[in-house]
Prior knowledge:
Low-confidence stretches: none
Distance between the termini: 36 Å
CATH class of the largest domain: Alpha Beta
Structural class: alpha/beta
Oligomer: single chain
Helix content: 40-55%
Protein name: Alpha-1,4 glucan phosphorylase
EC number: 2.4.1.1
CATH architecture of the largest domain: 3-Layer(aba) Sandwich
Radius of gyration: 27 Å
Number of helices: 32
Number of domains: 3
Largest sheet: 9 strands, mixed
Family: Belongs to the glycogen phosphorylase family.
Strand content: 15-25%
Cofactor: pyridoxal 5'-phosphate
Catalytic activity: [(1->4)-alpha-D-glucosyl](n) + phosphate = [(1->4)-alpha-D-glucosyl](n-1) + alpha-D-glucose 1-phosphate
Bound molecules: pyridoxal-5'-phosphate
Amino acid sequence: MGVEPSRAQLLDWRLALAHTLREQATDSWLDSARRTREDGLKSVNYLSMEFLPGRLLEDAAINLRLRDSVSASFDDLGVNFADVVAGEPDPALGNGGLGRLAACYLESMATLACPAHGYGLRYERGLFRQHFEDGRQVERPDEWLTSGDPFSLSRPATAYAVPFGGEVSDDDGGTAWRPETRLVAAAHDTPVIGYGGGWVNTLRLWSALPAADLLDLDRFSAGDFFGAAETETWARTLSRVLYPTDTTDLGRRLRLSQEHFLTSASVQDVLHRFLETQQDLRRLPEHAAIQMNDTHPALAGPELIRLLVDEHGVGFDTAADLAVQVLGYTNHTLLPEALEMWPVDLMRHLLPRHLQIIERLDQRVHAVHGSAADDVHLIEHGQVKMGELAVVTSHRVNGVSALHTDLVRRNLFPHLEALTPGRILNVTNGITPRRWLALANPALADLVTETIGPGWETDLDRLRELEPHAEDPNFLEAFGRTKHLAKHRLATWLDEEHGIELPVEALLDVQVKRLHEYKRQLLNILWTVSRWQRIKADPGADWVPRVKIFGGKAAPSYTAVKDIIRLINDVGAVINSDPETRERLRIIYPPNYNVTMAEKLIPAADLSEQISTAGMEASGTGNMKFALNGALTIGTLDGANVEIREEVGAENFFLFGLTADEVLARREQPGHARAAIEQSQPLQDVLQAIAEGTFSPEEPARYSGLVDHLWNSDWFLVASDFDAYNSSQELVDMSYRDPLRWQRMAVTNVARMGSFSSDRAVRHYMREIWNVPPAQ
Ligand SMILES: *Cc1c(COP(=O)(O)O)cnc(C)c1O
């Protein structure tokens, strides 16, 4: 780094570590690419608008099997390894689960020696940093690049022009698109190191640059300086920010431009790499699979067809067939507001050639399937439907949990399922055990290795061998110590980072995830108020001390859940300062939930809150991280909770609430919310306290809208599930009072979570969707 060791700052050490680790990975990185190229191996191209990798360096050290020696080397230098890695920014290039899933899958692909590229955007500003002011969420820009991106390599030689706008004309024999402007996509590559270091893939993120001719010199000379730089400014805006909404789509021009920019640059790169060693484009499906992570990259079909037809002279039908063989689509949500649709006018303005191709694809579906396709419309009511487009251009479509896939088949795309039975399949999500156990929970990881030996890191089913030890009091005690250690680590971190005190002896009850009405943080905080009221009414009773931990961001425009954030903080302010209840109930809400915070919180948790309205959470992966780390789940029959409960056993899971079918039926009953509240004295007491301003004395009516909504509408059925949730929470207390019983349940959870490894999920994709065998 050009610095004398005696004068080096932590930042210098971190940059040096990043370069050293990257160098250690480089031989494998080059070898993996060379093998793929020279042996003509088929590879996966995983397109995602979001990647949430977490801090890179410690993970790289673990996967290179160098963590202990790196740490020892720093000791020799008189530097603390933990301090070095703690300074690393956590790249927030995603909103939540979808981006984190992409990161887990890339890590598993590298571990399984599945040749792959991840493709995404290199947002200059990631997801906003969350602060609280008077309990309210305040967003500040995320500046993750201020000290560079030392683990990655910029590749100025790898760049593509991405066209926008202009006109299409059909002149003799061919279609000509004369775009109005072109942006340049420049590549930045991060090595993705498989466990053991034997295979290394690439995460390639694009940043947008203006093409050299974008400064309009005529306008400039005429004195219109700002106008002249307009396109240049627009180019720079394109990869500047990540859209901070995880479900609702804003339908904005900039977002569609970002999606096109990602898919066009990535698909051009896929074709470029194919043509380096091959000539016959009809063999593309033997060499490349492209996976679309949700509909955000759903322009990949039209873009691939455009490049094949317009630039390589392939016939339209052949090109469309090739696209289908290459593409796969993962659906992540049934929420109607999250199903992307783009106005035809906007698409015509920005991407006229793509619109033309989509219209032809629509005609083709009807020509091939006749009246059976009467209900299929890629364009309807002036909107291009990206879900339909993604299905029609893919040979496989998958949901992300058994329940979700069933609902995708039955409710979302029934007409498409009927056309091509078998196209829709399920691949339940997974998480990587390297980050979510080895890195996040070293004490538990060590205990596992001591007990069953090494190897579980790449064969998570081996955790089953822990099961006999669930009857061994010595083992249970050792397990209890790992939980205690994790709580102490969390306490230190909360104190140092946030000045928050954590009572480590209490039951840690954690709900961390994006704020959304369907995830029902509201149910959790209402119950917490109820608990407080009951402790006050009966202070002599034997209450299990609890710390309720919340974490998560709200989309800046989502006012309904911003109210819930404020309510949690308002309730916390009152309850935490109540001397009567302080020792038995505490609320903690550290701001700015991200992967790093998840790594601290999850190993320390006793109870995992997975309480979404049934039928609304596609899978969840937070639920898996907690159970793998020995937290018990209180949850509804939603998403992957269903499968987690089947695996760990109903007796080791706190189930409550309406099922997905019951939710639909309940919503049909007029006045269901009012009826539920009138039947529940505890819930009435809670709502009355909130309505009276108990938690907002300076503004008693602050939550009147929220309370009104619960009485009169309650789409997410908070009131309907309140009493069931309360009963389940009482069972939690009862179980926790018997520490050995609790630990036996927790160990059983850990032992039975093997199938939620992302290795299992990625193997399934390789076999059933990508048709890619492992390279090693
Ligand atoms: C795992 C994870 C998520 C997804 O959590 P869910 O509970 O499944 O919604 C979101 N954000 C971060 C930072 C995560 O690590």
